[in-house]
Amino acid sequence: MDLRVEGLSHRYDDLEVLRDINLEINAGEIVCVIGPSGCGKSTLLRLLGGLEQPSEGQVLQVGEPPEGSLNPLTYVFQDFALLPWRSVEGNVSLVLEGHKIPAAEKEARIADVLERTRLSDFRNAVPKQLSGGMKQRVAIARALSVNPAVLLMDEPLSALDSQTRELLMDDLIDLWERERFTSCYITHNLAEAVRLGHKVVVLSRRPGLIREVVEIDMPLKERTLSNPVVAGIQQQLWDMMRKEAQAADVELAG
Amino acid sequence: MADVTAGATPSPSETRPVRFRGGGFLPKPRRIIGFITFAVILLAWELGSRSGVIPALVLPAPSEAWAAFMDLVRSGNLQKHLSASLWRLFLGFTFGSILGLIVGTAIGLNSLARSALAPLVSAIFPIPKIALLPLFIIWFGIGEGSKVATILFGCFFPTVIATYGGIDSVDRALIRMGQSFGLSRVDIIRKIVLPAALPAILSGMRISASISIILLVAAEMIGAEYGIGAYVLLAGNLMSTDQLIAGVAMLSVFGLTVNYLITLAERRFLAWRN
């Protein structure tokens, strides 16, 4: 299933946040969206998954979601959004409970995603016992359990320390290599964008409009820290963003 | 640093350990000391009474109050008083809390309910419900009805306020998460909103439990044959201070027990917080 954004604009009262966004998220690719803070990245993501209604334009689902998809557009949040009173297993099970699936299938789905995110040993732990990286892996497991067509990731690594971020990024790359999931990945971190993105969409500062779409035609596996091509693209992106980020930085909030 | 001080050996007066100035401000409960406090006060009181420092008319000795209590046990009236009081407390507290939860949830989640009911609750909450007791007697009769209604009203308002306050402070990110996974509204309320508001709801219950004991006694003092309140009132009228102390001590035990039960509930349902 693809996701197509057509002429999307959004404003909160008088504040224009996004202007005329046109974007295509094709099956099997990761589209990274970067931009200075306050450019409407997160708003764009909320619009994509229907958590907010656009002022103008529309978001279209093209094609059918995969077989057994319980929630085609599924989020992974920056702050994990785990229920602190539920165990790892309980947090995954939460999003399966509302669907009429047999208990055996539910159990199978839980076991499967915990296996895939290497959390099987922590089934009964509660979020408070887990590190930030593990919490985000639980959130990813929860997202995978509904077999999504598109993963909408809102700065999933931003709340983590840099070492954990590296580890989890490797996990995401491995996961993509195995499953070729489709994703829209919001980040302010250029390194994440060039490591994970097949397409990098650069937004301007508010009102956010698309400045540039950079396609990176290199297998994710080869994009190591020391790769000069990757570093080059990252530099190129930073040159594009630098002025915008500076200007956004001195803007008054509100 | 070695370079700087080389050549000039510091005199002993210049080298001193850094003074410790942290710590403190973390009181830890030591259960045994609580018991010792009780024991010391009771002992001093008993000795004071026996030696005549405290006149028996002013304050009877603990042993006399105990004797009055044992009299009550032997006469078989203890059970009547206790069961009458507990039953009223149970009915009033349970239904007051349930209604409070329902109305508090409505105010917490629904704009119309909030606009309509929140001001009403704020207006009625500060009224001492004892002042309304005569009205309740007219409405619900002099029997059980008015007593239960007083307690019910007393519990209702703190529970409403605690519930919607708790719901207001639920992390909206969790609710958005629920919506993003397509959870139904009922499921979001049942599995996300209410569990997250539970700490606030339970501390509200602590308050409403104490209020309901106060109201229980007040209501029983106005026209009840049996009940701890009636027992205390009768003792007061007869100036039998030993019975009065025995009755009041029972009320204190009531309060402690209820508090303990709520602590148990917190330990059971809020274990995830620690």
TrEMBL record, chain A:
It comes from the Bacteria. Residues 3-230 form the ABC transporter domain. Transmembrane segments: none annotated. One of its GO terms (molecular function) is ATP hydrolysis activity. Keywords: ATP-binding, Nucleotide-binding, Transport. Signal peptide: none annotated. Belongs to the ABC transporter superfamily. This is ABC transporter ATP-binding protein. It comes from Pseudooceanicola nanhaiensis.
Automatic annotation (TrEMBL), chain B:
It is a multi-pass membrane protein. The chain crosses the membrane at residues 31-48, 86-109, 116-142, 148-167, 211-232, 244-265. Keywords: Cell membrane, Membrane, Transmembrane, Transmembrane helix, Transport. One of its GO terms (biological process) is alkanesulfonate transmembrane transport. The keyword Phosphoprotein does not apply. One of its GO terms (cellular component) is plasma membrane. Residues 1-21 are annotated as: Disordered. Residues 82-262 form the ABC transmembrane type-1 domain. Gene3D superfamilies: MetI-like. It is found in: Cell membrane. Probably part of an ABC transporter complex. Probably responsible for the translocation of the substrate across the membrane. PANTHER family: ALIPHATIC SULFONATES TRANSPORT PERMEASE PROTEIN SSUC-RELATED, ALKANE SULFONATE ABC TRANSPORTER-RELATED, MEMBRANE SUBUNIT. Belongs to the binding-protein-dependent transport system permease family. This is ABC transporter permease. It comes from Pseudooceanicola nanhaiensis. The lineage of its organism: Bacteria, Pseudomonadati, Pseudomonadota, Alphaproteobacteria, Rhodobacterales.
